[in-house]
């Protein structure tokens, strides 16, 4: 998505070897018009996937997921993150390891909100090692819902998440795919 | 706001003396069309307040704040919650007590995103004891930004947050104001 790639070029900051800071428009300060355009693009890409619900994980996934859900005209559900959860009967849960924070979190979704006839679209802001997506895939599996697709805002294609998703056979669409960071500059897959 | 009051009547659940559960359309599963309508209503109410940024706290505030910011055509910033924060020079922070969870959290906003010429609209999903709003007011004060208003989705008017805000002289608009829970039913201020 050209609009997003341009925004990353102008407003993103590369830190070290593999960190892209986009807290000025995506995950702390948020650009609502950009989120709206991204939501419309996700809805266009997955228009024929029969999506009945959009799933994400709090907090940074909420803005793009909400806009995708608005344009798809379906509810959005954000999984809650917990330090560690006392298992309760009414929740689907999965354990997610954060490489950034080097800590395990449990994520959960209330069982009332996923039904066997649902087809979900999983949305997240970043795809790096794919831990959050994997957690949502685990929940989808246990809940016995179909996963109609995975939509990512920014994918770091050189990390292992992309491969992990491709191996599942589920369709993944990333609005910006980063091939590499070169001398502090972002190099997109589309530019290679 | 009639649309929201109707939704609370049909889909909300009263638990005990003072808890309203709305996790099926507001703070776990989210109704995007309702969020959009609420965002439009906040934008209408604060159209003349000169708002340059919308502030909220993760996670439940993000959806209504994003939609308000979209309709006001300004950026949205969500404060990050932390268990307790090692103070860093680049963050504005405030301590927020959660009555529900009986725990202190620090909330923070990066200093880069608030400037002295900003006029902010504070949005939150619930107003009960007003702790989250108070935290954002503290940050606004230290950052030396003007608070143009406070927009609340659901206010429990019988708890102390409303009075606390009124005492500051800042304009507050709540889309649904709950006067009381009577026999497990919601009684709105508009019905009294």
From TrEMBL, chains A, B:
Its EC number is 2.4.2.22. InterPro entries: PRTase-like, PRTase_dom, Pur/Pyrimidine_PRTase, Xanthine_PRibTrfase. Residues 48-163 form the Phosphoribosyltransferase domain. It catalyses: XMP + diphosphate = xanthine + 5-phospho-alpha-D-ribose 1-diphosphate. Transmembrane segments: none annotated. It holds the Pfam family Pribosyltran. The keyword Cytoplasm applies. It comes from the Bacteria. Pathway: Purine metabolism; XMP biosynthesis via salvage pathway; XMP from xanthine: step 1/1. One of its GO terms (molecular function) is xanthine phosphoribosyltransferase activity. 5-phospho-alpha-D-ribose 1-diphosphate binds at residues 128-132. GO terms for cellular component: cytoplasm. Xanthine binds at residues 20, 27, 156. It is found in: Cytoplasm. GO terms for biological process: purine ribonucleoside salvage; xanthine metabolic process; XMP salvage. It is an enzyme of class 2 (transferase). CDD domains: PRTases_typeI. Keywords: Cytoplasm, Glycosyltransferase, Purine salvage, Transferase. Homodimer. Converts the preformed base xanthine, a product of nucleic acid breakdown, to xanthosine 5'-monophosphate (XMP), so it can be reused for RNA or DNA synthesis. PANTHER family: HYPOXANTHINE/GUANINE PHOSPHORIBOSYLTRANSFERASE, XANTHINE PHOSPHORIBOSYLTRANSFERASE. Belongs to the purine/pyrimidine phosphoribosyltransferase family. Xpt subfamily. This is Xanthine phosphoribosyltransferase. It comes from Lentilactobacillus senioris DSM 24302 = JCM 17472. The lineage of its organism: Bacteria, Bacillati, Bacillota, Bacilli, Lactobacillales.
């Amino acid at each position: 998505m050209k609009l997003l790639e341009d925004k990353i070029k102008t407003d993103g900051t590369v830190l070290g070897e593999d960190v892209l800071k986009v807290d000025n428009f995506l995950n702390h300060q948020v650009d609502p018009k950009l989120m709206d355009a991204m939501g419309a693009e996700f809805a266009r890409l997955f228009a024929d996937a029969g999506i009945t619900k959009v799933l994400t994980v709090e907090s940074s996934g909420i803005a793009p997921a909400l806009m995708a859900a608005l344009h798809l005209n379906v509810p959005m559900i954000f999984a809650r993150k917990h330090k560690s959860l006392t298992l309760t009967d009414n929740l689907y849960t999965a354990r997610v390891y954060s490489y950034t924070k080097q800590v395990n979190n449990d994520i959960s979704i209330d069982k009332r909100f996923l039904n066997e006839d649902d087809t979900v679209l999983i949305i997240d802001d970043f795809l790096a090692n794919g831990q959050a997506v994997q957690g949502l895939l685990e929940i989808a599996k246990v809940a016995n819902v179909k996963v109609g697709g995975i939509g990512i805002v920014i994918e770091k294609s050189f990390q292992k998440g992309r491969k992990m998703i491709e191996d599942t056979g589920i369709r993944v669409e990333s609005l910006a795919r980063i091939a590499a960071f070169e001398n502090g500059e972002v190099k997109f897959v589309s530019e290679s």
